[in-house]
Amino acid sequence: MNSPKMVAYLLIPVVFAAGAAAALASCTSLNQDTHANCLVLSRDRLIEKGTSGQKRVTTSCGTFAVEDNITSGFNSYDVFMSLEPGHRYDIRTGGYRLGPLSSFPTVIKVTPR
């Protein structure tokens, strides 16, 4: 019963669902929101495979990913380093919080207060 054809039929929905979830998580043009007067509590870097990983900022308004994206451009490290703990910012985010995938809304724009 474990024919390659049967395995393919079982894998197709799984691959499609994973792809759809990843697309939603990375789509910063959707679900945009502005969080006003957020106090930065900490900056963290989740290292994966020893060299790279997601940059996250925890604020009084929630936790956000700081990643390169098509909406805000490709300067995420500069944005990440500009978010200083103890300072307040207006933060524009996009995307969704998907708990099972450990994804957070992505920072699009930061304005110091």
Written description of the protein model:
With 113 residues, the protein is α+β, with helices and mostly antiparallel strands. Helices cover 27% and strands 37% of the residues. The chain is built from 2 helices and 5 strands, in the order αβββαββ. It has a 5-stranded antiparallel β-sheet, covered by helices on one side. A hairpin with a 2-residue loop joins strand 2 (52-59) and strand 3 (62-65). The longest helix is centred in the N-terminal third of the chain and has 23 residues, at 4-26. The chain is elongated, with a radius of gyration of 17 Å. The mean pLDDT is 84.
Tell me the strand percentage band: 35-45%
H/E element string?
Answer: HEEEHEE
Low-confidence stretches: none
Q: Report helical residue fraction.
A: 25-40%
Count, helices: 2
- Rg (C-alpha, Å): 17 Å
Strands, total number: 5
Mean pLDDT: 84
Order of strands, main sheet, comes to 3-2-1-4-5
What overall form do the CA principal axes indicate?
elongated
User: In whole angstroms, how far apart are the ends?
Assistant: 63 Å
Alpha-beta content class: alpha+beta
Largest sheet: 5 strands, antiparallel
